[in-house]
# Entry
Amino acid sequence: MKKILFAVVAAVLVAGTVFAGPGADSKGAASGTFVGIAMPETHVLRWIKDGASLKKFAEAKGFRAQDQYANADQNLQNTQIQNFLTQGAKAIIIGCVNDGVAAAVADAARDKVTVVAYDRIIPNSADYDYYITFNNFKVGQLQGQGIERGLNLKSATAAAPKYITLFAGSPTDGNAFFFYDGAMSVLNPYVESGALIVVGPYPKTSKDTANFQRIATENWQAAVAKTRMENLLNGDAKDVTLDAVLAPNDTLARAIIEACKADAKYASKLPVVTGQDAEAASAASIKNGEQYMTVFKDTTKLAEAAILLAEAAVNGTTPNIPGAVLASSIGLESIGDTGKKVVRAYLLDPVIIYRENWRDPVNAGFYTQEEIDQNNLK
Ligand code: BGC
# Structure
């Protein structure tokens, strides 16, 4: 009994030094606390960078951290989350694959573990409170503006229309709907005036589910987009020359450009192709005049913000996320709507990148030296 009492007192004393208020330990309650980092995939390169940044920021705060990647397989990600729970995680940062994650998030809530939805909303769940992402509607608007500029749509007329074909991201990813709706909020008026003609399916918004499915790219797979582009070039777009392709991210943009390059019609002039993520290979493509634009989302800042959120939740304090706005404060609460609850969604600001400012992400320290060297981004 005495031994047990001693152990309890000792444990309380140790906990007391670790968890004492500010001043006792600069890393506060974070010391040694375990944080799990569950990223969705590696075929879109940004997630490797995200996972590494999250781990770095977590460790800088004194957390223990582990990053795992799910290969676009929700069952695998749920197993990874279960492992984090078994290891006693106090917070889990999740960039989910699809809504199948809700079951694992419910288990986390049962164990009183904080879940932060990272970049992608966790749909159909009422079991978490925080979501950190970018203004995803604006990401789409920037893509629409890129096309508006690239095709000089403001001066286009129905007498001499421009031709576009549309791609969307994965229908399993809530972001894909915001990206698309943001882009179409810019482009629809030109379609309505006849200055822009859509070749292939035309969902006016993502709510046109049947047509959205036809332009969507399951799990953001480049091969799926490439094949669809090849089919368009030999089918719906056979008798026109496309002026633009709305591509939702860089991985898909480069696959679409590859398909266009194999078609003699586009040998001397590629369509204006949009993107997102400022991947190093796309920065090189923009620099070389192939891909027209991308959207730079500084995911280093996103990762830092996610760790600040996790830290505040673990410490029971109010989060203060520099540079982020609450979605509800700018009328975008729908970004935080899981279908079962509206969570607090913090939004960071995306930046448009054209050939003239391709260097912005380099200047922001976004690329590793290896990426800079491999893609000649000097
Ligand atoms: C992210 C994009 C990314 C896409 C594919 C989206 O949820 O916001 O940055 O390109 O997933 O991984």
Observations:
- The chain has two domains: 2-128+298-349, 136-296.
